[in-house]
Each structure stands twice: as C-alpha cells, then as structure tokens.
Amino acid sequence: MELKLAFIGFGNVARAFARMLCAHRSRLAEEYDLTWKVTALATGKHGCVLSQSALDVEEAVAVVERNESLTELSTVRAAHDSIEIIQACDADVLFETTPLDPDSGEPAAAYIRSALSRGINVVTANKGPIAFAHRELKTLAGTNGVAFRFEGTVMDGAPVFNLAEYCLPATRVLGFYGLLNSTTNIILTGMESGQSFDESLAEATRLGIAEANPDYDIDGWDAAVKTVALANVLMNANARPSDVKRAGIRAVSSEHLKSAAQGGNAVRLVARAETAGDGLRLTVSPETVPLASPLGCARGASNVLVIKTDLMGEIAIFETDPGVEQTAYALLSDLIRIHEDLMTERRHKI
Ligand SMILES: NC(=O)c1ccc[n+]([C@@H]2O[C@H](COP(=O)([O-])OP(=O)(O)OC[C@H]3O[C@@H](n4cnc5c(N)ncnc54)[C@H](OP(=O)(O)O)[C@@H]3O)[C@@H](O)[C@H]2O)c1
Q: Which of 45, 138, 226, 258 is labelled catalytic?
C-alpha cells in the first residue's frame, strides 16, 4: 500500500527519519509492501510547501541543511503556515516534530488536533501534546477512526509504549523510575570525567540531542514532561507537568560529583512516579545513586526506565547512547504499525 506522508517540522529528527525512509525504501516495500511519497512539508523558518504529486525528499533535506527555503524545490506550491498545510495536504500520515513547549504543549497539540479531525493518522516525537492532551487526542483519533502514535516521545526508539501495549497484556503499571533526559546525563557524566558544564552541554548540542532551548533540559522540564507523558499513558493518569515536583541540575557541582564518586555513588537526574494514597506522586530531581546500579552505570546519552508492574514485577529498559537515529526509528516503527493496521482494515473490507 502506498502512503502519502506530510511533515510538520523538518529538523534533526524529521530529516534523520526522511534519510532512513529513503535508505530503506526497498526493505519497506519488499518486507511490508509499504511504499510512500511525501506530499507536504512545513517548517518554522524554512518555508511550507505542498505537492500534488510527490516532493523530492532527498533534495528537501539538502535544501534545509543548506539553510535555504523549501520553496526552492520544484513542483511545489508554497503555503503560509503549518495550519494551512494541515488543512490542505493530501496525506495519510502526518509526522509532527516541532519543538517542545513545556508550558502548554502548543502549537503541536493544535496541529495534531487539526490533522486527526481531518481523518489523518498522526505520529509525533513531541512529548508536549502527550503531557497536556493525551486523553483528548486519543479520543479524537478514535472518533475519527485514525491512529495517534508517539513511541519516540519518551525514550527515542526504545519500545516503551509498544512494550506496554502489545507485550504486557492484563498487567497494571504501578509506578516507574528512570533517567529520561539525555542532555543532563551527558552533562553530569561529562562533569564526572572532568569536563566543564558548558563543554558537556556543547557536546549534547553538537549531537543534536539538546532541546532547541537547553534550559528545558537543564531545569528538568523535559524530564518532567516525559514523566507526565509516561504516567498519562502507562498509568492512565491525567497529570500535567506542573504536577511534577521538579528540580534541575544547575546546583550540582563538580565537587558534589567527586564526593559522590569517592563513596561509590553517582548523581543522576531521576524521574519517578509512585502511587501515594489515592493519588500519584511525580518527581524529577538529582539523586545520589550507587554507581553499580542501573541508573549509576548509565553514562552519556543513555536512558534507563524501570517499570513496576503488578503481574510482571520490575522491567528495565536500557537504551545505550541514543541519538536522533533512534528517534527516527521510533517514527518508522509507528509508520509500519499504522500501515499494518490499514492493511488489516483493507483486508476486512474485502
Ligand atoms: N533530537 C532528539 O534526539 C529528540 C529525541 C526525542 C524527541 N525529540 C522531540 O522531537 C521534536 C523535534 O526535535 P528536533 O531535534 O528535530 O528539533 P529541531 O531540530 O529544532 O527541529 C524542529 C523543526 O520544527 C520546525 N518548526 C518550528 N516551529 C514550527 C512551526 N510552528 N510549524 C512547523 N514547523 C516548525 C523547525 O523549523 P525551522 O528550523 O525552520 O525553524 C524545525 O524544522 C521535539 O519536540 C523534540 O522534543 C527530539
């Protein structure tokens, strides 16, 4: 089946995904009968374009990487903004990868709402809409008979939501803890190795891992938004980032890290969800953990999530040194899932 794809946001993640799609075009066609073409692209400063046939996606990647406008592409019509693209595009699946706004999840949630309302399947890597509007968007997708998938929002390509949805039938998630923010882990473990805070942050930025505004990482907002996204999806909570008791890593000094290391410990920015009475306690804060624990031995960009369940005990997911390629893979895995569901639907109609 051929799927028409639209992109809202064409930054590091979306371009890595576009490159992955191009590089594995024949694998997708041969193994999944999945063929695709891109019909719309929207960015903030690099133009918004639509095509009635198909865009040259490799050329689109090159244009944005040369910091030129997508309107330079041939066979495209320029549009004013993302909303116009969503309203006018001919797409089966829309990929939303605009920057995180940790205060509201907007305008990403509005883009997703608008696409789902038009009956377009949506995949996002943006955790904001999951933290602020997961319940509403999931219901909207159901009402419109389309999918809303977001595997890449919390642990890049590591299958967190798919694991819970497909591999843990009948279990209840009782809580979780982990390291959910790569930038702060790069900074803390870089400082452990003698680098300065600024050098380590520059490394995270160079790798394309830091948020467009790195304060969101450093002050714990990114981890707080991920904690809420996990709680909302895995524990059916209806929390908001302001419900998280949050502290970032600005107060963690090299001396603090050295003295922790002398005691066989490490300092990590730990996210937790614990049931407390009738409610849920959500925290993000620097904690001293044993160096030999799963959290202590996660270095650099590595992420760890330990999920506590009622029927399966504790399950740890460890993602070693993820980068944008892993988030791109999450978009690919969501696309394949949507394609499989559409194929099943089509078979049932015959
Ligand atoms: N980077 C990672 O490793 C990673 C991992 C997991 C999840 N994520 C999430 O994935 C999303 C994208 O991350 P990224 O690293 O690709 O960010 P990025 O490189 O900053 O790219 C953001 C893209 O969104 C575009 N954009 C900004 N405002 C827009 C708007 N109003 N309408 C349409 N496009 C708009 C930007 O266009 P201009 O450049 O023209 O302004 C750019 O193309 C974020 O929500 C992030 O939290 C990232």
A: 226
